[in-house]
Write a structure and sequence with these properties.
Elements (H helix, E strand, L loop, with lengths): L1 E6 L5 E7 L2 H10 L3 E3 L4 E3 L5 H4 L4 E6 L5
Length: 68
């Protein structure tokens, strides 16, 4: 199971979506213009130069273990 987590100013984090596949979450944020930044190690867009200088939101995808 994967969580799409938005990272806002002051490093605040909120879960946006949950999916069984990582690809579904990647497709969702890529449609909005986000891409993976190796330097930042998160999904960013051209409006956000990381949280420090940007005005928008970055995203990460985190894998979790399903609770049964």
């Amino acid at each position: 199971m994967y969580l799409l987590i938005s990272i806002g100013k002051n490093d605040s984090r909120h879960t946006k979506l949950v999916s069984r596949t990582k690809k579904k979450l990647e497709d969702h944020i890529k449609e909005k213009g986000f891409y993976w930044s190796k330097k930042c190690k998160r999904y960013i867009d051209d409006k956000t130069s990381r949280i420090d200088g940007g005005s928008g939101t970055d995203y990460i995808i985190q894998e979790i273990t399903e609770l049964v």
